[in-house]
Amino acid sequence: MATIPVTDATFESEVRNSDVPVVVDFWAEWCGPCKQIGPALEELSTEYGDKLKIVKVNVDENPNTPAQMGVRGIPALFVFNGGQPVSSRAGAAPKAALKSWIDSAI
User: Could you give the residue numbers annotated as active site?
Assistant: First the structure.
Protein backbone atom coordinates (compact mmCIF):
# COMPACT_ATOMS: atom_id res chain seq x y z
CA MET A 1 0.00 0.00 0.00
CA ALA A 2 1.50 3.34 -1.04
CA THR A 3 1.22 6.56 0.91
CA ILE A 4 -2.08 8.35 0.38
CA PRO A 5 -2.39 12.06 -0.42
CA VAL A 6 -4.88 13.70 1.97
CA THR A 7 -6.42 17.16 1.77
CA ASP A 8 -8.18 19.40 4.28
CA ALA A 9 -11.43 18.04 2.83
CA THR A 10 -10.50 14.33 3.20
CA PHE A 11 -8.57 14.48 6.51
CA GLU A 12 -11.59 13.60 8.63
CA SER A 13 -12.57 10.54 6.61
CA GLU A 14 -9.04 9.25 5.88
CA VAL A 15 -7.44 9.92 9.28
CA ARG A 16 -9.93 10.53 12.09
CA ASN A 17 -12.40 7.89 10.87
CA SER A 18 -9.80 5.25 9.94
CA ASP A 19 -10.20 1.70 11.22
CA VAL A 20 -6.40 1.31 11.45
CA PRO A 21 -3.68 3.55 12.94
CA VAL A 22 -2.59 6.38 10.64
CA VAL A 23 0.76 8.14 10.26
CA VAL A 24 0.28 11.68 8.95
CA ASP A 25 3.22 13.36 7.21
CA PHE A 26 2.85 17.13 6.89
CA TRP A 27 5.22 18.15 4.09
CA ALA A 28 5.86 20.57 1.20
CA GLU A 29 7.44 20.23 -2.23
CA TRP A 30 10.21 22.72 -1.39
CA CYS A 31 11.20 20.99 1.88
CA GLY A 32 14.51 19.11 1.64
CA PRO A 33 14.08 17.01 4.81
CA CYS A 34 10.55 16.11 3.66
CA LYS A 35 12.01 14.70 0.45
CA GLN A 36 14.60 12.76 2.49
CA ILE A 37 11.98 10.82 4.47
CA GLY A 38 9.57 10.33 1.56
CA PRO A 39 11.13 7.08 0.25
CA ALA A 40 11.34 5.63 3.78
CA LEU A 41 7.65 6.36 4.37
CA GLU A 42 6.77 4.71 1.04
CA GLU A 43 8.74 1.58 2.04
CA LEU A 44 7.16 1.51 5.50
CA SER A 45 3.72 1.87 3.96
CA THR A 46 4.36 -1.28 1.95
CA GLU A 47 5.86 -3.15 4.92
CA TYR A 48 2.95 -2.39 7.26
CA GLY A 49 0.39 -3.21 4.57
CA ASP A 50 -3.20 -3.19 5.86
CA LYS A 51 -2.16 -2.80 9.53
CA LEU A 52 -1.33 0.89 9.15
CA LYS A 53 -2.07 3.75 6.78
CA ILE A 54 0.51 6.44 5.93
CA VAL A 55 -0.89 9.67 4.51
CA LYS A 56 0.74 12.87 3.29
CA VAL A 57 -0.69 16.37 3.68
CA ASN A 58 0.86 19.10 1.51
CA VAL A 59 0.88 22.13 3.83
CA ASP A 60 1.01 24.63 0.95
CA GLU A 61 -2.12 23.23 -0.68
CA ASN A 62 -3.94 22.40 2.58
CA PRO A 63 -3.22 25.04 5.25
CA ASN A 64 -6.20 24.41 7.54
CA THR A 65 -5.35 20.96 8.91
CA PRO A 66 -1.71 21.75 9.81
CA ALA A 67 -2.90 24.96 11.52
CA GLN A 68 -5.46 22.99 13.55
CA MET A 69 -2.76 20.49 14.53
CA GLY A 70 -0.36 23.23 15.59
CA VAL A 71 2.25 22.36 12.97
CA ARG A 72 5.00 25.00 13.05
CA GLY A 73 7.71 23.24 11.02
CA ILE A 74 7.95 20.42 8.52
CA PRO A 75 8.28 17.56 8.18
CA ALA A 76 5.89 17.04 11.05
CA LEU A 77 4.70 13.50 11.69
CA PHE A 78 1.74 12.40 13.80
CA VAL A 79 0.42 8.95 14.67
CA PHE A 80 -3.35 8.78 15.00
CA ASN A 81 -5.02 5.83 16.68
CA GLY A 82 -8.76 5.69 17.22
CA GLY A 83 -9.12 9.07 15.53
CA GLN A 84 -6.86 10.87 18.02
CA PRO A 85 -3.19 11.92 17.81
CA VAL A 86 -1.17 9.68 20.14
CA SER A 87 2.39 10.67 19.18
CA SER A 88 4.23 13.25 17.12
CA ARG A 89 7.73 14.11 15.98
CA ALA A 90 9.36 16.76 13.82
CA GLY A 91 12.22 16.61 11.38
CA ALA A 92 13.80 13.97 9.21
CA ALA A 93 14.96 10.62 10.56
CA PRO A 94 16.31 7.37 9.11
CA LYS A 95 13.83 4.65 8.20
CA ALA A 96 14.78 2.51 11.23
CA ALA A 97 14.11 5.41 13.61
CA LEU A 98 10.76 6.12 11.95
CA LYS A 99 9.76 2.45 12.20
CA SER A 100 10.76 2.30 15.87
CA TRP A 101 8.74 5.46 16.60
CA ILE A 102 5.67 4.13 14.76
CA ASP A 103 5.91 0.75 16.52
CA SER A 104 6.09 2.41 19.94
CA ALA A 105 3.03 4.55 19.15
CA ILE A 106 0.75 1.79 17.88
Answer: 31, 34
